[in-house]
Every structure is written in structure tokens, then in C-alpha cells.
Write a structure and sequence with these properties.
By secondary structure, the chain is of the alpha+beta class. Helices cover about 45% and strands about 10% of the residues.
Length: about 425
């Protein structure tokens, strides 16, 4: 079985008001987390007693733990799991990463929330990093407003050549993952009308979204080089395709999902991604050509998934015509069934999908809480209702944690290095 791992971006929030807090610096400093390349943070060696007798832990990765690192904004923190072999191990790692981030946030009077955008309006503060500063200057409001939290799944590949074969064969199915994971109906105090507004905000970057069929590694490298040579992008790190070859790991990285409210849903999506990768490799070996669906249609599918998710029709990934969302989601599970069954993950995939379709995704839950708590009839939630949405998200992000107070904000230390240039950083 291929190893897989994930990166989760989480909001740091005030436990009462729901406002994002620029505490990433203090949070990371408080736990002595390594700052820098997330891949290096994810591989920081630290003995973990739970792993010593765990048969699911790959021997090569025994003793490694999750990592924490900065993201673009000081109001968010990223967790990374190590490479895992089983669903059970990955779920444990996701929960462990959330626990590390939660414990550090609580020590500052804050909480973490697995929300893909902030329901509550607030200022944002760019992490004081020279690269981020250039991005802020060059990309203006796109960088300034980019407080979004995604969920990235890495799946191992035998070679970059194999990775491109995978990219070409999964591109037409990725919008379904956006629909399943959608968890961002509110944006800075506003009801957006979208289930995954993060997708809309993220796709303002010039290199984001679905890609065309590459055909070969040489073609992939040529496209990346030409994009960088335009001078629009800073470097290869800004290749924001929906799925790409990782720069730092021998993996395919799928980037279309919102961060999930529940860790169980996150692990489920990772299982589906790994099955997609394995299915794509087998199709390539069997001589099955990738679908030639135009990239413009993939953009339509992505937009539809972002707009309606599970509430209305999606575009079927076979015909690219509207079909009931549940039918499209079950079609994906059916397509992946041979690999899921072989890997012993079919039952958990079917159970997990059935649960999401019954209760809804994170966006469904956010809108339900907002509707229950809103005191106006305008159709737009009031600030108190949106604060309740965040408190609910805190509880679901870390369901085993103590209840979050609803009344009074706890004191926090907001440390924001706004004038980093003068400090010589």
C-alpha cells in the first residue's frame, strides 16, 4: 500500500468572539516548533510511545511525529502528518496534530478551529517572512485577504514520471472532493452563497485551478518552467495546480479540499485520494488513456462543487452534465471500489460517505448553527450567530477538549510583527 500523509491549515481563534487571532508566532515559539520548510517540520524526530508497538506504523517512520509550521497568515497554523500506511494511523496522526496545535493555542487563551474561511470579520496579518512580503506587494488584495485553510493530501509515487501519469488521470474527478469537503460558506461576516468559498478565494492566484493533460514528465516540467519564466510567479512553490508533483517529497499532492471540520472526514478524503492515485497508476499500466475533457469543463465542475457542494447537482465526472450530488459522490466510490476493497478500506469509505451525505459536510453544519442562532430575518447571519459557528467548529475540531465558554473572551496576547523590515528580519 502506498504511504500517504496530509497537511491541515487551521484557524487560531478567540474562544468567545470567534475572531481570528494573529498568534502563530507566539504559538510556535511556545512549543519550540521548528520553523521553515513544512516537509522538514513534518520529519522532526521525536519518540512517540504510541508508535513503539503499533503494527500500522511503517518501520522507516517509527518515532517521527506530526509537525507544526507557519502559513501565509499569522491567524493560522499548519499541521503535517508523517507518511502513514493505514487509515487508522493517519487518523491518529491528524488528531495528534490538532491536539498539539490546540494545546499550544489554549496556553495563550486561544483555540483552534478547522474552518476553511473565517466566518467572523477581522484584519489579517501576513507572516513576517521575506517571501511572503514580496507576495503581499506583488499580489495586493489577493495576498492580503488570503486567510483560507486548505487540506492537502500527499500520496507516494514510484517516480516523477509515474506522478505525471497520475495527474493526467485524476484531474477530472477532483471536483467531487471539493464538494465532499466544503467547509466555507461564510467569508468575513458575510454569507457567500457558496459552500466552499475558499475555492473561489484561492482561485484568484494566477496559477491555481485544474491543469491540462501533460502527457509526460518533460511536458510537465516545461509548463512549470514557462510559468515561472513569465515573471508572474515567484518560484515553483507558487505552482498552485489542483494537483501537482510535490517539490520536497516523492508524492503527488492533491490540493482541492477545504480543511474538514471533523478529523474523521479528513482521513476519509485522504483514503479516497490514495485510491485515486493507485487506480490511476493501474489504468496507465493497462493502457487506459487519460480523459481528454477540456480544462474549461473542469473549471465548470470545480465552480459547481464550490457553489453547491452536496446541496444540489454536481457535474458528473463521466459526462460533465448535471447529476444529483449523492449520485456523483457514490459514482466516485464505485469507480474506486476495486482498490478500496483490495486495501480493506471499502467498508470505511462507504460508511464515511453515507455519514457525510446524511448529516452534511462542514458547510451544512455551519449554516445550520448560524440559522439556529441568528436573531434577524434578513437571510444574513448576525455577528453573534457567526461567533456561535466558530465555537461549534472549535468543539468539533477537538471534540474531546473542555467546553468552550460562550460568554466572555479570555485574555490573549496578540503578537504581530507588522514592521518587520525595520527589525532586520
Amino acid at each position: 500500500m502506498r504511504t500517504f500523509g496530509v497537511e491541515e491549515e487551521l484557524l487560531i481563534v478567540d474562544p468567545a468572539s470567534g475572531e481570528p487571532l494573529a498568534l502563530a508566532d507566539a504559538l510556535l515559539a511556545g512549543i519550540g516548533a521548528a520553523d521553515g520548510d513544512p516537509a522538514e517540520a513534518a520529519d522532526a524526530a521525536a519518540q512517540d510511545p504510541q508508535d513503539l508497538e503499533d503494527p500500522d506504523v511503517d518501520e522507516a517512520h517509527r518515532g517521527l511525529r506530526t509537525g507544526l509550521s507557519h502559513e501565509l497568515k499569522l491567524e493560522q497554523i499548519e499541521t503535517q502528518t508523517r507518511p502513514c500506511r493505514s487509515h487508522a494511523e493517519l487518523l491518529r496522526q491528524i488528531r495528534r496534530g490538532r491536539t498539539m496545535a490546540s494545546d499550544a493555542a489554549r496556553s495563550l487563551g486561544a483555540r483552534i478551529a478547522a474552518l476553511a474561511t473565517s466566518p467572523v470579520d477581522s484584519a489579517t496579518h501576513t507572516t513576517p517572512n521575506p517571501r511572503y512580503a514580496v507576495m503581499q506587494e506583488r499580489f495586493g488584495i489577493t495576498a492580503h485577504e488570503q486567510l483560507t485553510c486548505g487540506f492537502h493530501v500527499h500520496t507516494s509515487i514510484a517516480s516523477p514520471e509515474e506522478g505525471v501519469l497520475v495527474l493526467d488521470r485524476i484531474r477530472d474527478k477532483l471536483a467531487v472532493l471539493t464538494a465532499i469537503s466544503a467547509n466555507s460558506p461564510y467569508w468575513r461576516g458575510l454569507a457567500t452563497g457558496f459552500e466552499s468559498y475558499r475555492t473561489q478565494a484561492w482561485n484568484r492566484w494566477p496559477s491555481s485551478g485544474p491543469s491540462a493533460v501533460f502527457g509526460s514528465l518533460a511536458s510537465y516540467r516545461r509548463v512549470v518552467r514557462r510559468l515561472i519564466d513569465t515573471g508572474v510567479l515567484l518560484d515553483e512553490g507558487m505552482i498552485y495546480f489542483d494537483a501537482r508533483l510535490s517539490r520536497n517529497n516523492p508524492t503527488v499532492e492533491v490540493r482541492v479540499a477545504d480543511v474538514c471540520l471533523r478529523s474523521e472526514d479528513a482521513a476519509l478524503i485522504a483514503v479516497l485520494v490514495r485510491a485515486l492515485v493507485e487506480t490511476a497508476v493501474r489504468e496507465s499500466q493497462a493502457g487506459v488513456e487519460p480523459s481528454s475533457v477540456p480544462t474549461a469543463l473542469l473549471r465548470m465542475a470545480s465552480w459547481q462543487a464550490s457553489n453547491f457542494a452536496l446541496r444540489n447537482d454536481l457535474l458528473d465526472f463521466g459526462t460533465f452534465r448535471p447529476a444529483p450530488a449523492a449520485d456523483v459522490v457514490w459514482s466516485l466510490v464505485e469507480y474506486l471500489e476495486p482498490v478500496l476493497a483490495e486495501q480493506g478500506e471499502l467498508d470505511l469509505a462507504q460508511t464515511g460517505i453515507a455519514g457525510i451525505l446524511q448529516r452534511g459536510n462542514g458547510a451544512t453544519e455551519q449554516r445550520r448553527i448560524a440559522d439556529e442562532r441568528s436573531e434577524n430575518d434578513s437571510g444574513s447571519p448576525d455577528p453573534a450567530a457567526l461567533a456561535a459557528v466558530v465555537r461549534h467548529a472549535v468543539r468539533e475540531t477537538m471534540p474531546e477538549a473542555a467546553p468552550v465558554p460562550d460568554t466572555k473572551s479570555l485574555p490573549v496576547l496578540t503578537w504581530v510583527r507588522q514592521d518587520w523590515r525595520g527589525a532586520g528580519i
